[in-house]
């Protein structure tokens, strides 16, 4: 069986380091906040050349706390793609704002600036560009548009750790960014974890208070916050994984380019992004006309596949009321998309098997 993502293989490589680090932390009883967490916060922030970084409990909280910290709330409209994981839209609702769904680019599936221009109103306060599948959004154009129209930007980087646009790490363009360390993400914890970047020190400090009952020190409760802290046990695991990210990301890119080359021969559409975008392939997506049939064929051959995502968010029950207009590209690709196995530990032999069966059975 070739899984979509293999966390067990990776654990067998890291096991000694991880168990030792957890043992160390437990002997120290440093279970909440403290130096292990701060160490990881510094490491992750500097790894992306970001200004201010704050760890938090998961990627969904990262987005909603980032929105709240920069002042988005009731009465505000937030533009976001419908082609994303549901959490992006949930975060907007959690702060009391209204999600306004935009269409995507047909070539690389990121939010479409032409549709952003169609959807903006005087109520629009922010945009959430989602670097979906690990492909950067058009950050140059989006930041320019945001400046002209006085909009705030929160990047959804849940799938795009270490991706680059114009040689600059994603997550460092907007006023804020939210990352997920869900186990299957490119940087994955052994449970839930997340992270926020901010450009402005005051915003970072509000976020720091929000995740910890409104305080910075023990009884300094200045605002009403939450309990959304990053677990130090997860932080020490993430510190270990961070050391491998350069090689693991390269390996994902290498696998992706082998897939690209093979599928170009039969005209199957893959992610095609402009050369100033360096994607990190959290998902390797293809578009085919016989998606469900191809999925069955691959399953019989022991090859797992996924669909990211089976339903656009604006078609989901809780979000129907926010749908303003059809999103033709999002709706057209929805029945055609299929995700293939991609993870650093995938062997060349396994990949060749995937390629073989896709070439045999995929219909463009
Ligand atoms: C995973 C993900 C999230 C949510 O992260 P969690 O850590 O699972 O809460 C948000 N947005 C996108 C695009 C994601 O893929």
Q: Which keywords apply here?
A:
13 strands; single chain; 12 helices; alpha/beta; 7-stranded mixed beta sheet; 364 residues; binds pyridoxal-5'-phosphate
Structure at a glance:
Helix content is 39%, strand content 14%. The chain contains twelve helices and 13 strands.
Describe this structure in words.
With 364 residues, the chain is an alpha/beta fold. 39% of the residues lie in helices and 14% in strands. It is built from twelve helices and 13 strands. It has helices at residues 7-28, 35-47, 59-69, 87-94, 113-119, 139-149, 201-210, 232-242, 245-264, 291-300, 328-333, 348-361; strands at residues 52-56, 77-81, 98-102, 124-127, 152-156, 164-165, 168-169, 176-180, 194-198, 269-270, 277-278, 284-287, 337-340. The strands form three sheets. The chain has a seven-stranded mixed beta sheet, with helices on both faces. Helix 1 packs across helix 8, helix 2 (35-47) runs parallel beside helix 8 and helix 9 (245-264) runs parallel beside helix 12 (348-361). The longest helix has 22 residues, at 7-28. It is globular. It starts with 6 loop residues before the first helix and ends with a helix. The model has no long low-confidence stretch (mean pLDDT 98). Bound molecules: pyridoxal-5'-phosphate. Pyridoxal-5'-phosphate (PLP) binds at residues 58-60, 84-85, 87-88, 130, 156, 158-159, 180, 182, 192, 194.
